[in-house]
Amino acid sequence: MENATTEPVPMVYESMTWIIATSVGTLSLTATTWMLLVLCWYGIKHNKFSKSDHSSYLLYTTACTAAVLTFLLQALNEVAFNVGYSAGTDEVCNVITKLTVQVYVEATSFVYLFLWVKQYCLYQTSLLSHLYKDWIKRVSYLSIVLMVLGLNLAGITFNVLNTFGSTETGCRYVDYYYSWPSIAASSLNFVGDGIMLFLFFYPFRCSNQPIHSPATMRLLKRTAATTMLCVVTDAIAGMWNGLVLSTSNHISLAVYGFSATVNLLAVLLTFETWIKILTCPFHHRNISNT
After folding, report:
1. What is the CATH number assigned to the segment(s) 15-282?
2. Which of 68, 199, 233, 244 has its CA 20 to 30 A from that of 251?
């Protein structure tokens, strides 16, 4: 026989939001764990963290940092999906939700920092260095400032304004949900990403100084495409959490987590050897390309 003290218990595991969030979260955690392991494995095996190769050192360090933060985000999400169903857990809900939001902000910041470093390294190559004028440099710095500073300010504002507590369906905002920081972050990201995309496509518009290397063109196009993927996933996550209210935080956190996993995959896809990175535990050949 059900009573008031046992009723919330089956709701934890039978509610559709919990099932969806946990399924998406488990998938995201599994994929993120694999990408973190192979990035570190490949980077260590092929000496990519050596400071003697400045470009590889910067790229693999920022990529692995983004992977570690994304893994931490997925782990926190799994905890957040399973707390906040009983009285007296308001503080736990508040802390875990805000910590998850801040880790998402930092993980996304490092993804964009990686893309910015990738762009910088491309512009330092012999084929593109003549295009790296002062105005390009200023515009490039503007893009990363808009993205990283905008994300962090929005995350801090979101956590200051919102309070989360326990309910019978899990952690949820208390009294009123301030959604505008999520929308503001998405808007700033859109502007910053637009500037970054412009700088990726700019070399193709310099018809008087064409790029003769097919490999460089492919790398530029692939990095631009992965940047666009980040733009789309972050916009969807930001707008979802800014406009869609739920009976718990489950779906919102799952959307953020999935977005972060897609962003990490986009980071891996920018490498020419992305297939070999993803499968490196299964082969032992020496690979020289980056």
Report:
1. 1.20.1070.10
2. 68
